[in-house]
Amino acid sequence: MSKRFLYVNRKAPYGTIYALESLEVVLIGAAFEQDVSLAFLDDGVFQLTRGQQTDELGVKNFSPTYKALGDYDVNKIYVERESLEARGLSLDDLLPLTYEDEDDDWAEKDSIKLVSAAELAEIMQAQDVVLSF
């Protein structure tokens, strides 16, 4: 039985290397068939926002890479409701991340699950490994 890995993303997408490093580690773990899930809370919710413009920052916008997660069977993406609301965001402000469910005739389904802080705490408790970025 493989270990369950949860990658917790708390930082804004740009200004530090944490967000990009987390995404790269998740993709590597998923490529090696680890049971990978992600959590976005605090300013980490900004990592998933639509329409990111990075030209003035002089850095590459890596947010389109999140759309590849479904191809790596990463479909457990948890976003903390309270963090979204505190930043004036809703689910509609986030990237449309999906996966194809092989158990449901390859139906396309949403990867993002909006959860409360209490639910996220339970999800964290159920993991074998929790890595925070």
Question: How would you describe this structure to a colleague?
Answer:
With 133 residues, the protein is of the alpha/beta class. The chain has helices at 18-31, 81-86, 117-125; strands spanning 4-9, 35-40, 77-80, 98-101, 107-110, 112-115, 129-132. Strands 6-3-2-1-7 form a five-stranded parallel beta sheet. It has a two-stranded antiparallel ribbon with strand order 4-5. Strand 4 and strand 5 form a beta hairpin. It is globular. The two termini are 25 Å apart. Pfam families: DsrE.
In short:
The protein is 22% helix and 24% strand. It has 133 residues and is α/β, with parallel strands linked by helices.
